[in-house]
Predict the 3D structure of the following.
Amino acid sequence: MAEREPIGVVGVGWVGLVTAACFAELGHRVHAVDIDAAKVEALRAGRPTIHEPGLDDLVERNRERLAFTTEIGEALDAARLLFCCVDTPPTHSGDADLSRVRAVVDRFRGDGGHALVMKSTVPAGTGAAIRRDVEGIAYVSCPEFLKEGSAIEDFMHPDRVVVGGDPGDGWASDAVAELYAPLGGEIVRTDVASAEMVKLASNAFLATKISFINEIANVCEEVGADVTEVARGMGLDERIGSSFLRAGIGYGGSCFPKDVSALKQLAGNTGYHFQLLTAVIEVNELQKRRVIGKLKEHLGPLAGKRVALLGLAFKPDTDDMREASSLVLAARLQGEGAIVAGYDPVARGRAADLLPGVELCGSAAEALEGAHAAILVTEWPEFAELDWAGVREAMAGPLIVDGRNFLDPRKVSAAGLVYEGIGRSEARAGAAVEAAQRGG
Ligand SMILES: NC(=O)c1ccc[n+]([C@@H]2O[C@H](COP(=O)([O-])OP(=O)(O)OC[C@H]3O[C@@H](n4cnc5c(N)ncnc54)[C@H](O)[C@@H]3O)[C@@H](O)[C@H]2O)c1
């Protein structure tokens, strides 16, 4: 493969490491920078730092083209385009914390020969502020849309690539657009503020879709409908689409909660009250807690009851625990006096610090042993394959709450267990049909 333009990547977490490895795979020499010396050391030694399918192989295959360092100067010496992939967590006010972005900008040379390419998710207006503050900086907004669990596939086959540039930095946005051209996705060329807004609006829209279907699920429970059937019927309408219409116990992760809050706050800072997003956030918080209500309905007071959490990561195929529903559930259950056991195929290492007092188990069977109820929190494929008859024997009580509507209710019920999904209670559905037939 022909050598292509060298690039720099600053911040080697989920986005940065995937970006670095994928650009290396495309033939670029990549200088990847992180302030975390232990992480850099691990990456140099070929030790994985995150769980992302296919990533370890990609890093290994491209070791020759990937240099890991703690020195941003090395990247600036070698490359003219530096991709900023540092984290932008929420502050106490709900705004995005830009201190890490600012730390990168401070090290940047505003010499006209380098461009900062912003992949971190930042509030609209950030690019303009940086350009005001750093004379001579070339700035491109190139927000990232990858999903953890399918990050490499998403990078290599993007639906679209958004490249925001402002007049005067034409060379930089042309160069970024050229980097992505071989991937084939549509390249949306626009101004910096609009590019920044595309990212926030996209995540806010997806979160809205999730909260919407969750509210529909809650109404389904009242009227005896099955939300999985409702979502199937809705999703086939091409104006709606089927993705992000799976009801469950709410969204989590490192992006949706903070990005929805950051957009709401961004609007609020300008004096605009974004009412819809306020509701989206509230619905999501309540949705996680509804599970506790379901447990109490079946078990009564939860004090002293053992509850197994199946899955701890915020979604399958990742070990990311940021804003995972398991964190809220475990804390609420412990608040009710329950004994909480948890199992996750890959997130156990990260869970240890985040779930104090939770018994972390080495298998689903261990977590389920003696449990009065189990909650499926993360839809890892292995949970669909559980031996439900064995599960029934091992558990002290029969309740399975399927927080992701992932299991086959018939299989679970056939083993003598009590299945509760989200918005798909068969018992209630049956009762509603009978009521309708009676004219009730
Ligand atoms: N994770 C996702 O799925 C995803 C998807 C799209 C966009 N994003 C956005 O991308 C950004 C990065 O997210 P992430 O999940 O990869 O974060 P992360 O926390 O996994 O990684 C951030 C990395 O940046 C490093 N870092 C912090 N300050 C630094 C500095 N001054 N110099 C060098 N390195 C520094 C940290 O040590 C860390 O390794 C965020 O703004 C996020 O919103 C994330």
Confidence is low (pLDDT under 50) at residues 427-435. The longest strand covers residues 4-10.
